[in-house]
Design brief:
The protein is mainly alpha-helical and 452 residues long. The chain has 15 helices and 11 strands. The strands form 5 sheets. A 3-stranded antiparallel β-sheet has the order 9-10-11. A two-stranded antiparallel sheet has the order 1-2. Strand 9 and strand 10 form a beta hairpin. Helix 5 runs parallel beside helix 7 and helix 6 packs antiparallel against helix 7.
Length: 452
């Protein structure tokens, strides 16, 4: 008798039922692994996910996993053929392959994919009768080692990464520093973005209520001299489904802090959170000068930073400029409001420069008094998805796969840098490398080491 995996034992009714389940999933998702005219990579991501969730009744996360995993199979022709013939791999195993391969990022040579394809074919070819099919853990371990040997910049200790990313919501690290030569000591509080944002708002609200400085508020709150506010509000940007509900599986962005990890995301979507759909704010116009909070939040998320060329002052600390002045008939609407820091707002007010947004591309053209110009490509959370050519938040399946691969590669590189720091303890080199990584990927790495 030929070798076979236990999951394909034709004498076992449970194995037969499992095969039927895998074949059903394969029949549903195999279209996303196909090229040619029927390839669905350019389909609208949100609409496609909503359609699949509605027609199959499967949970959204399972639908996403199926689509992403089968899109990755396009890069592995031999494994794809094996899956077409046998439906041997369930979604958990395909997901392990997808996540590990995402560390390679985009623009990968097919030769690299071919090496991985050959390795996986050997892994999923039985050599004994009733052999156990390798599970997700084995797949992850083998692929991480294999890919790490190919690209050392992303090779990192998975156990250390899990430890760094495993903080539960509200869990913090507190460290007290011994006194120095100037008679002072210190403490460092480290927490996920959501917890730290909440702590900051409690401090600022207490300072405002008591009419004291934030530093004084910290001391008085900790020592019990004053009572903390009953509640505070923090604002976070989170993607939404087409039906207006928040995507609780996706990372949220907290202004001034960054994107949440799993712990912070859970807090953002926890009890007491209020969801405000910002899509209507794009076209909302008010009669007065001051924009409502929803329009302000939309503009800040669209711009990301001050829109002056080269300025990285966060939009959430900027002023909102009426491009066409309000007193000259300019409307208080997102299309006429842009984020400018105080310095560059003054430059525009002094007429040393003016800007014109391109409604098609989203670019902003600055024209200066000396006859020169500069082109700005906004880096906001959804700038590229609110133009005439890319309306609102539309993303294709290909867009999401590219973003997912970039993000996974970014974090793999970041943890590899931290692993090196654990060995050489060179703090300055580690921080410089992480900052370079953030600039390259335009993402924020949330696990900086503490200073020696």
């Amino acid at each position: 008798m030929d070798p076979f995996f236990a999951t394909e034992n034709l004498d076992d009714p449970d194995a037969i039922n499992g095969m039927a389940l895998r074949r059903a999933h394969h029949a549903l998702f195999r279209q996303y692994a196909e090229d040619g005219e029927e390839f669905l990579g350019s389909a609208d991501h949100d609409i496609e996910m909503a359609r699949l969730r509605t027609t199959t009744g499967l949970p959204l996360n399972e639908v996403k996993s199926g689509v992403y995993c089968y899109m990755t199979l396009k890069c592995l022709p031999h494994l794809k053929q094996l899956q077409d013939e046998t439906a041997r791999l369930d979604l958990s195993r395909l997901k392990a392959i997808d996540r590990a391969m995402s560390m390679l990022g985009n623009n990968v040579d097919q030769d690299i994919y071919d090496l991985i394809d050959d390795m996986l074919m050997k892994l999923f070819t039985p050599t004994k009768q009733n052999q156990e099919l390798p599970g997700a853990h084995t797949i992850t371990h083998r692929l991480n080692k294999f890919i790490g040997d190919i690209d050392s910049s992303i090779a990192h200790d998975k156990r250390k990464r899990k430890s760094r990313e495993s903080a539960a919501p509200g869990q913090c690290d507190l460290d007290f520093h011994p006194g120095g030569t100037h008679g002072t000591s210190g403490m460092t509080l480290t927490a996920d973005h959501a917890t730290m944002a909440m702590i900051k708002e409690f401090i600022l609200e207490a300072a405002k209520t008591e009419d004291i400085t934030p530093v004084e508020a910290v001391v008085k709150l900790i020592t019990g001299e004053i009572t903390p506010p009953a509640s505070v509000t923090i604002f976070a940007y989170a993607p939404m489904h087409e039906d207006g509900t928040a995507d609780e599986s996706a990372s949220a962005f907290i202004p001034g802090f960054g994107h949440t990890t799993a712990a912070g995301t859970e807090m953002v979507h926890g009890a007491g959170s209020t969801i405000v759909d910002l899509r209507p704010a794009r076209d909302h116009t008010v009669a007065g000068y001051v924009p409502p909070p929803s329009v302000r939040a939309y503009v800040q998320g669209r711009d990301g930073t001050c829109i002056f060329p080269g300025c990285d002052h966060p939009a959430w600390k900027c002023q909102l400029d009426h491009r066409i002045p309000y007193e000259e008939g300019g409307q208080t609407t997102a299309a006429n409001l842009f984020s400018l820091c105080q310095h560059h707002h003054n430059l525009k007010t002094d007429k040393r420069g003016m800007y014109v947004p391109d409604p098609v591309t989203g670019d902003i053209v600055w024209l200066f008094e000396d006859g020169t110009y500069a082109l700005v490509d906004p880096e906001g959370l959804f700038a590229r998805h609110t133009t005439a050519e890319e309306p609102r938040w539309k993303c294709t399946l290909d867009d999401i796969q590219r973003l997912k691969r970039d993000r996974e590669r970014f974090f793999a590189k970041g943890h590899a840098i931290l692993d090196a720091y654990d060995i050489d303890r060179d703090y300055e080199t580690c921080v410089a490398a992480l900052l370079d990584l953030e600039r390259e990927y335009r993402l924020e790495f949330p696990f900086y080491p503490e200073a020696n």
